[in-house]
Design a protein that fits this description.
One of its GO terms (biological process) is amino acid transmembrane transport. InterPro entries: AA/rel_permease1, AminoAcid_Transporter. Belongs to the amino acid-polyamine-organocation (APC) superfamily. The protein is mostly helical and 518 residues long. It has one domain: Amino acid/polyamine transporter I (Up-down Bundle). Helix content is 75%, strand content 1%. A two-stranded antiparallel ribbon has the order 1-2. Helix 5 runs antiparallel to helix 12 and helix 5 crosses helix 18. The N terminus and C terminus are likely disordered.
């Protein structure tokens, strides 16, 4: 009896021991798998450089040559007052963008990390515990919630105008104002490239490459047609010259806003520096190739418009490129709105591609919710910030119109162009002993700073608009969030649950930077 009971206890003990041992093995297996998964994440994320020189050039050209040259031409000409000053301003905007990007190039040579945000942190962050990081946060706040969504809204509305106009004309249908409003907003909402950007970095860059080639072909048609008519002697509108040119700084600055919108993608490559192959070589080359190419295209396109259309026709037209195509191409005029739609889609793609990256870095720096810094486990794309930009852009589409959104965008972006130049000048003295692979004469950032300051002050002094007040109010509102959530590092109730929810929903994880910090 005793022996049988002992044997039973022994068997039971061995069975329990075996069970516990198997559980330990199972736990060990899970731990190994978990560690291996995260080792693969670290390996993949440290090799997260997938944008080459050609893709860098096409990203800059593709983002700049979008709706701007097709929707800003009329407003810029109206504010300039004459064809001569209009062409000069298109060229000056190009030079301004090139100088600004040369300054960014100098900054990027020291900080191969995302854009103006890091410049503000480096320049002002160490100066004061409270006030130092404020400018970086305000820049991120305005860029993520205002500038990038307004950019997407303008592009989407431009897409709607150029997509619907030739179709409605072809079927001889003239909708009333309300139906036109609803149709434009519906089409603008459909104009989303979010899926491609969320799907993969390579997918987004491939779309960008293809659409850039497509839009350059459409632009070549406009430039070629304009040069042909110029050769035939159609110079009547160009001969007006500078007659009637604007003389006030306010008008010229407002005209400049249209040019700034058209050139607004000039710094987008800085936002994806971390994904750029061999950035010390490819970043300057991409800038030097893309900006002069874009400036030449813009000036020649406006010359082409003026060879065929009168200044008044250009000013009054919502779809100036379509009007040009109707006058020049006849039955083949459908090629122009097709080219513009391709152009706008490519630019929207490039804008979302870059917009997701600034949100990603701000989240990684702890100045926004953590999940905005997370990227997809397999595709390595920052899904959450891209979707956020798209959603806010759609909300701006509903009440907005292109002209007011362009003024809104131009005023906001000029503030931070000026601040970025101040940051560069400050670091020129506070970090003068640092090695600088690329050097820029200090007069260049001073010029860009002064011009940017004029672009901010002159329109307010000459013709204040409600859009400017909204921008300043939004900047001030950022301080409400900065004090508790950034300076005092308070967390919103339930933010952990929200982060986990979005991680599961979008299959996003922290990057290698987050692992290293933790």
């Amino acid at each position: 009896m005793y022996n049988s009971r002992l044997v039973g206890l022994t068997v039971n003990s061995l069975f329990l021991l075996e069970t516990q041992f198997l559980r330990v093995l199972d736990c060990f297996d899970r731990v190994v798998k978990y560690l291996w998964i995260h080792v693969k994440i670290l390996i993949n994320f440290t090799a997260w450089f997938q944008v080459g020189l050609f893709s860098g050039v096409t990203l800059i050209v593709g983002t700049m040559i979008g709706s701007g040259i097709f929707v800003s031409a009329g407003s810029l000409l109206a504010n300039a007052g004459s064809p001569g000053l209009c062409l000069v301003l298109w060229g000056v905007c190009g030079v301004y963008s090139l100088l600004g990007n040369l300054n960014n190039l100098k900054l990027n040579s020291n900080y191969i990390i995302t854009g103006e945000y890091i410049y503000f942190l480096e320049a002002f962050g160490p100066t004061h515990k409270f006030f130092g990081p404020i400018l970086a946060f305000i820049f991120a706040w305005v860029t993520v919630f205002l500038i990038n969504p307004s950019s997407v809204a303008i592009l989407s509305l431009s897409f709607a105008k150029y997509f619907s106009s030739p179709i409605l004309t072809a079927v001889n249908f003239c909708p009333d104002d309300y139906l036109t409003y609803v149709l434009d907003r519906l089409l603008a909402t459909i104009c989303a490239i979010t899926f491609v950007n969320c799907y993969s970095v390579k997918g987004a860059t491939h779309v960008q490459n293809i659409f850039t080639v497509g839009k350059l072909m459409a632009i070549a048609i406009i430039i070629g047609g304009g040069l042909y008519y110029l050769g035939l002697g159609y110079t009547e509108n160009l001969e007006i010259g500078f007659e009637g040119s604007a003389s006030s700084f306010g008008q010229i600055a407002t005209a400049f806003y249209g040019g700034l919108w058209a050139y607004s993608g000039w710094n987008n490559l800085n936002f994806i520096t971390e994904e750029l192959k061999n950035p010390y070589r490819n970043l300057p080359l991409a800038i030097i190739i893309a900006l002069p190419l874009t400036t030449i295209c813009y000036v020649l396109i406006n010359v082409s418009y003026l060879t065929v259309l009168t200044p008044q026709q250009i000013i009054s037209s919502d779809v100036v490129a379509v009007d040009w195509g109707d006058a020049v191409l006849g039955s083949a005029s459908f090629l122009i709105p097709l080219g513009v739609v391709i152009s706008v889609i490519g630019t929207t793609n490039g804008t979302l591609f870059a917009a997701g990256r600034i949100s990603h870095v701000v989240g990684r720096e702890g100045q926004s919710p953590d999940f905005l810094s997370y990227i997809h486990f397999e595709r390595k794309t920052p899904i959450a910030p891209i979707l956020l930009t798209s959603l806010l852009g759609i909300l701006m589409i509903i009440p907005g119109d292109i002209a007011s959104l362009i003024d809104f965008f131009g005023f906001a972006i000029s503030i931070f162009y000026c601040a970025a130049m101040v940051a560069l000048i400050v670091m020129r003295f506070t970090k003068k002993d640092e090695h600088r692979p690329i050097k820029v004469p200090i007069i260049i950032p001073v010029i860009v700073m002064v011009v940017s300051a004029i672009l901010v002050v002159a329109p307010i002094a000459a013709a204040p608009q409600v859009q400017y007040f909204y921008v300043l109010l939004f900047i001030s509102a950022g301080l409400i969030f900065y004090i508790p959530f950034v300076y005092y590092k308070k967390s919103l109730p339930g933010i952990s649950f929200i982060t986990i929810f979005f991680q599961k929903l979008f299959q996003i994880v922290p990057t290698s930077h987050d692992f290293e910090e933790k």
